[in-house]
Amino acid sequence: MQLRCFDPTCATKLDLHAPALACPICGGLLEVDMDGPAFDASVLKELWSERRRSRDPRDISGVWRYREALPDYPANEIVTLGEGNTPLVRGHKTASWAGVSDLQFKHLGWNPTGCFKDLGMTVGMTEAVHIGAKVVACASTGNTAASLAAYAARAGLIGRVYLPAGQVSLNKLAQALDFGAEVVEVEGSFDDALNTLLEKTGEGIYFLNSINPFRIEGQKTTMYELLDQLNWKSPDYLVVPGGNLGNSAAFGKAFDELLRYGFIAKAPRMIVVQAAGANPFAQLWRDGADELSPVEEPETIATAIRIGNPRSWKKSLRGVRNTAGQVLDVTDDEIAEAKAVIGHDGIGCEPASAATLAGLRKLRASNQIPEDARVVAILTGHALKDTNFIIQAHQREEAHAH
Ligand code: F0G
Q: Are strands 269-275 and 205-207 parallel, antiparallel or unpaired?
C-alpha cells in the first residue's frame, strides 16, 4: 500500500507513512492506494465471519476485523475502543413517514463516543502512534473533537481540538473536556477553525481531520460491515448526511474496492443530503458545476454539518457519480420534523443524522425513488449528542399548544 494523490491527472505516489497532509506536487487530497487483489473475496468473507467468535481485540473491533482492507500495523500499536459492530435497525414509523416500505438504519451513533468519527479515529490514531506523533489535533463541529479526545487519551497523546466558538453542542464539548483534550475556541465557523489549524503546519502536530487519508480508511469499513450484515447484497439506496464530505468519500472508496475485488456485484446508489443553509455540494450538483463554490456563512440547526467549504467534495462526488447517486438538500424544518419521527420510532439521533430521513422523504415525494426500494439510511450521531436541541424543540411545541 502507498499514498497517492487523488487527482488522476497527478496521481503522485508517496510512501504510505509519509507525513504529508496534501500532495506535495499539486496540493490535492491524498488517499490510501490498496495494492492489487492479493486476496480472494470468498476466503475473506469466511475469515471475517469466523473472527466474530474470536476474543482478539482486533477481531472484536468492527473496523480492525476487516484489516486486510486497511494499512497493516503491529497488534500492539492499534488504538481501539471496540468501535463498529453497530446494528441495522428497521424503521417503522419512519418508513411510513418517508413513504417507503423497506427502510433500515445503520446507527453509527452507537459507537464508543456516540458518533461515526470513532471508526476513522481508531485508524488515524493508530497511524499517529505508528509514526511517533506526540500531539494530535483537529478542527471540529464537535464530534470529531470528542472522538479525537477519547482516542488520544487511550494512546497517551496530547489531543488538541479547534472549535467554532459558541457553535458546538455542549454535550460534545463536555466529552472533549472529559477525555482531557486541550480546547481552542476560534471565532467564526468550522471553516475558520479548520483554516486556523491548517496554518499550524510545521509545529509537530499530527492532523486528524477527515482530509487525513487514514481516517477515511477506517470510515470506509462502515460499508464493509454493512454489506457483511446484508450477506454482501447491496440495498438499492444508501442515504448519508454530508458536511465536510469525508464520510461519503469513504463510502465511495469502499464501493469501488468492494466491486473491484468481487465482494459485491452491485453498489447501492449513494444519496448525500445536506442542510439547505450549508449546501455547497447540493448546489454544485443542481448546477452541474465542475467546481465547488463555498457557502460563506453556513447556517443550520444541525450544527454538526454547519460547513461552507467541504474539503473532500471531489472524493465524495466520485462516489456519487460512480454509483449513479445524487445530492440534495433539506430545510431545517424538515430536519427537525424527521428527527422527531426517528425519536418516536424508538431510535433517536442527533439533528444532522435526521437529514437522511428528511432527504429520503423528499425524494419519495417527488417520485425519484420507488416505494418498494430497499433503503439503508446512515445515522451518524447519538440522540444524546445534542440534548439542548431536543429540550428546546419540546418547549416550542408546548408553547404552541397553549
Ligand atoms: N453527521 C454528524 C453527526 C457529524 O458530526 C458530521 C460531521 C456529519 C454528519 C458530516 O460528515 O463531514 O464526513 O460529511 N462532523 C464533523 C465534526 C465535521 O467535526 O465532528 P462529513
A: unpaired
Ligand 1 contact, 142 CB (< 6 A): yes
Identify the pLDDT of residue 387: 97
Alpha carbons 2 and 17: distance in angstroms, whole number = 8
Asked if residue 3 has its Cβ within 6 Å of ligand 1, the reply is: no
Cα-to-centroid distance, 38 and ligand 1 (Å): 33
Distance of CA 119 to the CA centre of its chain: 8
d(CA 194, CA 172): 17
What spacing in Å lies between the alpha carbon of 394 and ligand 1's midpoint?
Answer: 25
Q: Which three cell numbers stand for residue 333?
A: 424544518
- What distance in angstroms lies between residue 62's CA and the mean position of ligand 1's atoms? 20
* CA–CA separation, 177 and 150 (whole Å): 10
> Residue 177: helix, strand or coil by DSSP?
helix
Nearest of 234, 277, 270 to residue 249 by alpha carbon: 270
Contact indicator for 338, 357 with CB cutoff of 8 Å: yes
**Alpha helices (H) in 75-115, listed in sequence order:** 93-98
| pLDDT the model gives residue 383 | 98
Query: Does the beta carbon of 86 sit less than 6 angstroms from any atom of ligand 1?
Result: no
pLDDT of residue 21: 86
Is the beta carbon of 164 within 6 A of some atom in ligand 1?
no
pLDDT tens-digit series, residues 83-134: 999 999 999 999 999 999 999 999 999 999 999 999 999 999 999 999 999 9
* Global model pTM greater than 0.90: yes
Nearest CA to ligand 1 atom 4: 304
Q: How far is CA 328 from CA 240, 275, 368, in A?
A: 11, 9, 12
The proportion of the chain whose per-residue pLDDT surpasses 70, expressed as a percent, equals 99
8 A C-beta contact, residue 244 and residue 275: no
The pLDDT score that the predictor gives to residue 198 is 87
Distance CA 273, CA 292 (A): 16
Q: Measured in angstroms, how far is the CA atom of residue 250 from the centroid of ligand 1?
A: 13
